[in-house]
Amino acid sequence: MADPSFTELKLDYLEFKNHGLGNPISEYISAGHYTWRIDCHYTEDDEGDCINLYLFLRSKLKTFDGIFEAFLVCKNGAPSSRAKRSVLNVDTKYTNCDTVSWRGEILVKPSLLESRYVTNGAITLICGIVSLRGNWSITVPASEMGNQFGSLLDSPDGTDLSFSVGGETFRAHRTVLAARSPVFRAMLFGSMAEANMSRITLSPDDIDLETFRAVLRFVYTDRPPVEERFGWSLKTTEHFQRVLAAADRYDLGRLKLMCAQKLWETVSAETVATTLGCAEMHGCPELKSRCLDFFMEKEIFKKAVLTEGYLWLMQSLPSVIDEIKARVEALIVF
To answer: Ranges for the BTB domain (predicted)?
Structure first.
């Protein structure tokens, strides 16, 4: 993550004090594949002795992210608390110069510089630059695995299985299906009859054509059906509910949650009852909880109880109706 580089500057104290601003003492240091020049000047005023540090980037670059730090060394060899630390963020897209400069200073109270830091006529200054490396990282492109696996569906190459659904034939790969779904794995590599079949027929009672198409596409691409364009609309609540049910059947948890999110995004007073029932029947507690909360909104409740979906809910899932009633009663008591 970091690429540190440090240098030790031993400065003759008397010579250093006599150097003017136009005649600095310089040292070069490399960090992150770039070369920097450190210039040191001495000044003094009423506040004390001041070591002025100038940092110049001598290499051309596009970006640089790092840290510069400098500190004095005491007579006993220990680092001084008198230090300068700065974060360096450089982006030459926003500058018109080829070199980048920075200035900082280490201030020491009057007379303390000589008494605490001068050893054998010299002061020692440690300077370091740490490159955070992010500025020269290698760009990694987005994964193409979904597209590459998806292309397998459009070619018969390597397929060893076919499904007949709604009058259409879908070619597939046993290993891909088994890797993605434990249900397919049990079906195709277990003791079930399908394990010995090269062609499996699914009836409309099992799954409809477009729902199976959506499931198979997800298995190969890991993308939600709404992002695919294969000749049908997934914008209706009924379509999302069927795909969610199929995802539950084939134990495709990610697809189930994707459909749950889409159903939640489009929920309304007209659809909340059937969506709630779908969540209950196919083990989606996240969607069920949100639908129950949505039901409790006063204006939504008035409309939802008059829909055909609510009538279906009463007939098919009376336990859910009991949950709704319990929530309503709790609100009334509260």
So the answer is: 159-228
DSSP, collapsed to helix, strand or coil, labels residue 176 as helix
By the 10 Å C-beta count (0-12 exposed, 13-18 middle, 19+ buried), 111 is classed as exposed
Residue 54 confidence (pLDDT): 81
Residues 104 and 21 in one domain: yes
pLDDT in tens, 190-224: 999 999 999 999 999 999 999 999 999 999 999 88
Calculate the CA 152 to chain-centre distance. 28
How many whole angstroms separate alpha carbon 50 and alpha carbon 281? Answer: 76
Alpha-carbon span 278 to 276, nearest angstrom: 5
Is residue 125 classed exposed, middle or buried when 0-12, 13-18 and 19+ CB atoms within 10 A define those classes?
buried
Pairing mode of beta strands 3-12, 122-131 = antiparallel
Q: How many domains does the chain have?
A: 2
Per DSSP bridges, beta strands 199-202 and 161-165 are parallel
Last residue of a domain, one of 197, 216, 232: 232
- The CATH number for 188's domain is 3.30.710.10
Question: CA 275, 280, 282, 288 torsion: positive or negative?
Answer: positive
Element housing 35 (H / E): strand 34-45
Would 152 be classed as within a structural domain? yes
Structure-block tokens of residue 229: 């364009």
Identify whether residues 154 and 209 lie together within a single domain: yes
The residue range of the domain holding 125 is 3-134
User: Within a domain: residue 111?
Assistant: yes
Residue 171 lies in a domain: yes
Residue in this structure with the two tokens 């220990």, named with its chain if needed: 78
Tell me how far apart the alpha carbons of residues 35 and 41 are, in angstroms, rounded to a whole number.
Answer: 20
pTM: 0.60
The two counts, helices (H) then strands (E), for the chain are 13, 11
Cβ count within 10 A of residue 69: 16
